[in-house]
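Quick entry between incubations.
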Amino acid sequence: MDGRFKLDNQLCFRLYTASRLITQAYHPLLSQYGLTYPQYLVLLVLWEKDSQPVNDIAKRLMLETNTVTPLLKRMEAEGILTRTQGKKDARQMIVKLTKKGRELQDKLTEVPETVGSSVMCQSVTPETVPGLFRMLDDIIEQLKHNNNESNS
Amino acid sequence: MDGRFKLDNQLCFRLYTASRLITQAYHPLLSQYGLTYPQYLVLLVLWEKDSQPVNDIAKRLMLETNTVTPLLKRMEAEGILTRTQGKKDARQMIVKLTKKGRELQDKLTEVPETVGSSVMCQSVTPETVPGLFRMLDDIIEQLKHNNNESNS
DNA sequence: AATATTTATATCGTTCACGATGCAAATATA
DNA sequence: TATATTTGCATCGTGAACGATATAAATATT
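Done. Structure below.
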């Protein structure tokens, strides 16, 4: 048989595993503040631009609202953010950081670098990372379109 | 502020998104046979080598048994595989494909290529894939050790 | 203006991931 | 051989992901 079905030939398995392991690397850094990795992603989005409707956050993270809504509710329960109905558009829920949510940024300053440096290795260096980013971005862009096409 | 917290600078977010989107690309191909992507990974492992204890499958997929056990039970309920107590070691559960599980390989022949070709794009080509694999493998290897160190 | 369609969000059910914990069989140590 | 430790697997609880579906508000169409 050819190597078609060999696990070691699968790009997806590598992405899946790398993603899981790097999320695990975030865990000890985030859990001391009661955060999960997806919650940290929401914070990244809101730190860049506070006060956004659910949909904008979901789009930025390329997730569906049915994933993001419960996530936001948990963060609201933790006092990290507030969800208030939009004024212009009553369907929208505007998500806004609380003081606690904003202050988390100061407490997590060392997180990006800690994790960033922990993945650096022989073939992953400041020189090669841009190429890696490019390939991953291309794959993401490609799949975003392919996947959308197939449900139309 | 520097770009430390910018979502667009995060390797992990790219891996996480690429992994999710590529799993979604598998979905229409697998769901017609009642399979999920992690279940497909289990099949890849068992097609390579049938009749393995739970632990070997988990190690191959770099997952914990508490993830794999329920997964295998669902596949057992679907009649894809059997779980029988080991003879030499009564703690082990030996996982073996059924006829149905083996025959799935013939039905899924086109899956690897379909997904494989759907990620090919400008910067991801047969020439660049080995480099991508190398970087992902390095990252995985690195994190596997780092993550283990921190719980010891 | 009344009706249809679209949009923004939420709810529900199922399947992972995974930390924490439990338990019994196997192995090591005393 | 009795006791301690390790190993293999399972159970439990929580938080994602996500397909399917629901609901109400906004917009488009008639």
